[in-house]
């Protein structure tokens, strides 16, 4: 029996509205049509911005305890309706039921962190008397909201990465317009419902669904939008930075993250961590392990055991508890990954396991001897593929890791403290994880990279800082 197709509406200000056109939303695992959503027009974007101007004024006047209360209530609503949120993620995305549960838990944590950080938006005093002639002045700095935040979110974490933009925006006293990924818009709409149930005043939040090619430019280019937060691919992010003009931006643009395994590493922990880090969410993870460099004395042992553990992973139906890996987000993306694997093989790479595709499902794949000119060696694969290569030394591993246009996160396994500190200082990444793979993140930490991996940092406290401006105040005291 087929599921009933749900006709969704989008949120503009505090109202659920339709559009002249609709878009279909499919389950990537079955190809089944599960919902339709409005395909917003440029006029819809203009209306959302118009309402957000009013919403920004309202949000800025909310007391800190009111913002905190709304955020806590939204988190509690999600917690009370956890099963519904989990099922939405499973239906529209690549995530298995276990992965979806984790995302919902993280979303709740993100909103509660946002509430707590709202009370810590503070400033500092300035000793004006440090300069001759300013002895009678006292001053301070405080933070105020930027106004309207435009948030463009990806498909791989369709709930929590939306929360990472909406939560801090509201905590800081802004209005926010969310443009969720076209392939996974439903979780963002459910999150909007949570905020309405929490009593968020009208016009502070909008979620506009539609094709990015139609609505992203008029959203990010509008003069009233003062901060653009984008998570997605490098090329799209690069184009956005050309269009936004003189305004603040936050960009998280992905990576092809490395993990280094030295000869003194704990092999069991290294294998467990890197297998999980390489293949979670079918490899569609910006900090997922794509490259592994193993010191020669340990290389063959590591490779053999890594392949053995990879072959144990179950590819299958997302809703089954025993499934480890679900589909990629679309058959088109699965075909792309398949073609990258084929190119690497043609250039001389060896396929140790996997490499096969069936519709949107790609087997977890381990490659070795991958030439540096192969696309999969230099670009972000965003699929269940990992490259494992031997190195002679830590220095070679660091050089190979840094030989990339990206720099989001890296991992290293070693028992030597001095070796770890060398890696920390020499690896050119926004984060270095010791005795862990690159795939480590908590929602309270600063998250972002260098080079092609982006601009600025996410993580609740750090997003709030980005979504506020500093104002300097000086008092001249009368003698």
UniProtKB/TrEMBL annotation:
Question: Which reactions are catalysed by this chain?
Answer: (2S)-3-sulfolactaldehyde + NAD(+) + H2O = (2S)-3-sulfolactate + NADH + 2 H(+)
Which residues constitute the signal peptide according to the record?
none
Q: Name one Pfam family in it.
A: Aldedh
What's a single GO MF annotation on this record? Answer: lactaldehyde dehydrogenase (NAD+) activity
Q: Give the EC class as a word.
A: oxidoreductase
Location of the Aldehyde dehydrogenase domain: 16-473
- EC number(s): the record gives 1.2.1.97
The UniProt similarity line reads:
Belongs to the aldehyde dehydrogenase family.
Instruction: List, alphabetically, the PANTHER family matched.
Output: ALDEHYDE DEHYDROGENASE (PTHR42991)
Q: What is this protein called?
A: 3-sulfolactaldehyde dehydrogenase
Question: What organism, scientifically named, is this protein from?
Answer: Halalkalibacter alkaliphilus
């Amino acid at each position: 029996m087929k599921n009933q197709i749900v006709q969704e509406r989008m949120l503009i200000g505090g109202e659920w509205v339709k559009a002249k056109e609709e878009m279909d939303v499919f389950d990537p695992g079955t190809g089944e049509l599960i919902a339709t959503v409005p395909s917003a027009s440029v006029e819809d974007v203009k209306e959302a911005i118009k309402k957000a101007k009013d919403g920004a004024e309202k949000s800025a006047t909310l007391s800190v305890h009111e913002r905190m209360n709304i955020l806590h209530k939204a988190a509690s609503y999600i917690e009370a309706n956890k099963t519904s949120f989990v099922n939405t993620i499973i239906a529209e995305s690549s995530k298995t039921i276990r992965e979806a549960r984790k995302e919902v838990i993280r979303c709740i944590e993100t909103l509660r962190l946002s509430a707590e950080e709202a009370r810590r938006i503070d400033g500092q005093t300035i000793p004006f008397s440090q300069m001759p002639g300013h002895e009678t002045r006292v001053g301070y700095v405080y933070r105020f909201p930027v106004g309207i935040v435009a948030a463009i979110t990806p498909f791989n974490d369709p709930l929590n990465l939306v929360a990472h933009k909406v939560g801090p925006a509201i905590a800081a006293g802004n209005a926010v317009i969310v443009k969720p990924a076209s392939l996974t818009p439903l979780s963002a709409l459910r999150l909007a419902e949570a905020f309405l149930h929490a009593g968020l005043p009208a016009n502070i939040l909008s979620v506009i669904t539609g094709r990015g090619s139609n609505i992203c430019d008029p959203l990010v280019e509008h003069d009233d939008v003062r901060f653009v937060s984008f998570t997605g691919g490098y090329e799209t992010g690069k184009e956005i930075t050309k269009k936004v003009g003189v305004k603040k931006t936050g960009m998280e643009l992905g990576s092809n993250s490395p993990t280094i395994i030295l000869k003194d590493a704990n092999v069991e922990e290294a294998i467990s961590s890197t297998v999980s880090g390489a293949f979670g969410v079918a490899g569609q993870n910006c900090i997922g392990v794509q490259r592994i460099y193993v010191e020669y004395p340990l290389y063959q042992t590591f490779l053999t055991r890594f392949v053995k553990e990879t072959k144990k992973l179950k590819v299958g139906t997302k809703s089954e508890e025993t499934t480890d890996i679900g589909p990629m987000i679309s058959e088109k993306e699965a075909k792309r990954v398949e073609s990258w694997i084929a190119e690497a093989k043609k250039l001389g790479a060896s396929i140790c396991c996997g490499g096969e595709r069936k519709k949107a499902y790609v087997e977890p794949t381990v490659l070795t001897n991958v030439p540096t000119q192969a696309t999969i060696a230099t670009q972000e694969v965003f699929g269940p593929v990992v490259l494992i290569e031997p190195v002679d030394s830590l220095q070679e591993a660091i050089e190979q890791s840094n030989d990339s246009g990206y720099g989001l996160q890296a991992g290293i396994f070693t028992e030597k403290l001095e070796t770890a500190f060398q890696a920390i200082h020499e690896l050119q990444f926004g984060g270095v994880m010791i005795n862990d793979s690159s795939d480590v993140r908590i929602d309270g930490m600063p998250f972002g990279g260098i080079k092609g991996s982006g601009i600025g940092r996410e993580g609740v406290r750090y997003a709030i800082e980005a979504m506020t401006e500093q104002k300097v105040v000086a008092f001249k005291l009368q003698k």
